[in-house]
Amino acid sequence: MKHTEERFIGRVTGIRTPLMTGAMVAMMSAAGPLKEAFSLPALYGAAGGMFVLGLLLLLPVFRVSGEAAEQ
């Protein structure tokens, strides 16, 4: 938050909460049918794969903020 302009702080937080709530409701609704269609280890593996994919997508953000701190 220290690298963000003050006028954006409330706006980002204001949209993040409904998006997170909506995503959680959607995924809980999809969990039952997915559990019936696939085995539990397959679902855990898919969830882990998505977690790693999200981490890989965030790596450029950490590199940029690391370079900004060096300057």
Fold and architecture overview:
- With about 70 residues, this protein is an all-alpha fold.
- It is flat and about 45 Å long.
- The chain has two helices and no strands.
- Helix content is about 90%, strand content about 0%.
- The longest helix is centred in the N-terminal third of the chain and has 32 residues, at about 5-35.
- The protein has two domains: about 1-35; about 40-70.
- The mean pLDDT is about 85.
Low-confidence runs of at least 5 consecutive residues = none
Main sheet attributes: strand count, strand direction, barrel closure: none
- Compute the number of structural domains: 2
Helix content: over 70%
N-to-C terminal Cα separation, in Å?
18 Å
* Tally of separate helices: 2
| Average pLDDT taken over every residue | 84
How much of the polypeptide forms β-strand, as a percent range?
Answer: under 5%
Would you list the SSEs in sequence order as H and E? HH
User: Rg, please?
Assistant: 17 Å
Structural class, by secondary structure, is: mainly alpha
Strand elements, count: 0
**Outline, from the CA principal axes?**
flat
How does the SSE layout of this entry go?
Blueprint: H1 6-37, H2 40-70
Short summary:
This protein is mainly alpha-helical and 71 residues long. It is built from 2 helices and no strands. The chain has helices spanning 6-37, 40-70.
Which tags fit this structure?
mainly alpha; 2 domains
